[in-house]
Amino acid sequence: KCGHVAIIGAPNAGKSTLVNALVGQKVAIVSPKAQTTRTRMLGVALQGETQIILVDTPGIFAAQRRLDRAMVAAAWDGAGDADLIALIVDGRAGAGPKVEKILQSLKDRPERKWLVLNKVDIAAKEKLLSLTSKITDICAFEEIYYISATTGDGLEEFKHALANAM
Ligand code: GDP
Ligand code: MG
Predict the structure, then answer these.
(1) Among 5, 48, 116, 139, who pairs with 103 as Cys (CB 3.0-4.6 Å)?
(2) pLDDT tens digits for 39-74?
(3) Does domain 2-48+59-165 have CATH number 3.40.50.300?
(4) Per-domain boundaries in the chain
(5) Any ligand 1 atom below 6 A from CB of 91
């Protein structure tokens, strides 16, 4: 089996860190600086017989400059080819205007949608729960995962679920 998963989210949510962790080797550049991922990057994660093709995208945000707009367009293009869209949200930073904007665009899309709250290693549990209800009030998700892309917390379960969804 084989399927495409688009990893979308605001800049710095941890999308590239997650793709690298799932693939098990470095394919995307991780940086504390926003917008390090400038175009779509592909990584392949193997889970048993299943290939999960991960599309790491530039962060989606309200772009003003032309290059920025092109990056945001590339991110949504990546989502268009996908069997499933995983929205990564920084569990500590929460859902500001950038995340709300993504949710508004996401809610009318036909693809399957999963929510992944990242950085559970540095986010308070109560915050994660209120964030989850804030997000799901705007857009419904088929599944919700709590992970840390850096410590690996919750990643095995997430990867298994992805493989089963392909
Ligand atoms: P992207 O812009 O969404 O691709 O985000 P990156 O993957 O480049 O990560 C942005 C920053 O968040 C980097 O400094 C990462 O090390 C950090 N980061 C990513 N995931 C986690 C996590 O689960 N926990 C913590 N504490 N930091 C993380
Ligand atoms: Mg990135």
Answers:
(1) 139
(2) 667 788 888 889 999 988 877 766 677 777 777 777
(3) yes
(4) 2-48+59-165
(5) no
